Amino acid sequence: MSEKIWTTQNTEWNKELQNCRLCPLECGANRLSGAGACGVTGLSVAKYYLHPFEEPCISFRKGSGTIFFTGCNLRCPFCQNYEVSRAKRGKVVTPNELADIFKELEDMGAENISLVTPSHLVPYLVQAFRIYKPKIPVVYNTGSYEKIETLARIDEYVDIYLPDVKFYSPTLSKRYLGRADYFDVASQAVAFMAKKPLCMTKEGKMLSGTIVRHLVMPLCANDSKQILRWFKNELPETTYLSLMSQYTPFGNIDSFPELARKVTAREYDNVLNEAFALGIGNLFAQERDSADKAYIPEWDF
Ligand code: SF4
Description:
Blueprint (H helix, E strand, L loop, with lengths): L10 H7 L26 E8 L4 H4 L4 E6 L12 H4 L5 E2 L2 H13 L5 E4 L5 H10 L6 E5 L5 H7 L5 E4 L6 H8 L4 H12 L5 E2 L5 E10 L5 H14 L5 E5 L20 H13 L5 E3 L16
Parallel strand pairs: 2-4, 4-5, 5-6, 6-8, 8-9, 9-10
Antiparallel strand pairs: 1-2, 1-3, 7-8
Helix pairs in contact: 4-5, 5-6, 9-10
Iron/sulfur cluster binds next to loops.
């Protein structure tokens, strides 16, 4: 990956990036001279393309214009995008160049622009949106370890939130994400996102709203059920749930032998039946054959 460091054109933001507290890690890195705990300095893109395999209301007919950004503030050992989240792949771009990527994806027929793992890049993204606001919906696809103040800065440019809620139990989130406070932080961030009004076309394409994703993990069905109960009890009825079965052993999981297998049909159905029992109506379920490395993208840069 290029070592070029690009500053924003906003001096206030540059000051802020010299002591970065954009995400709950608040690591205080000087992003203008080196990487923070999220692994990156400036804006870096690993891939952009039309993604055909998101939820039907997101990929819809022509695919979601997905942009994978380099770096992440979570360190999930099982990350399916490991090379990108650990900042090993990617090309540094300016906000102007990112705005050109928005236009290119629009010209390719993208149903929306989907920003994957964007929270550590919010000042750069806001700058790109000020240069060019896409005419199609903008999707914010996040691991949910987010500060509400940071979300509030980009909210006016976001139409659809796609937060992934990973673990309920502090013990599990400490083990797998290194953060015991994950659910406390994520649940507040998702409550903010879920205020986005729901708007679907007659044909079933989402124009605005929130879809909470949850990936069922091996040996974690009871934790998944806790997340479903929170979803049902705390979030507006307009919120969608996407219950994913696609966990595939990947990344750096040697220290986690329990993660060396896919989720069984019994585990997934156990959680899915809880969703039915709770009466969650706005629900996407996933075919189990989605759990395949063939669904993991090849990186461009
Ligand atoms: S966004 Fe990155 S540099 Fe900023 S506080 Fe979070 S981990 Fe640290």
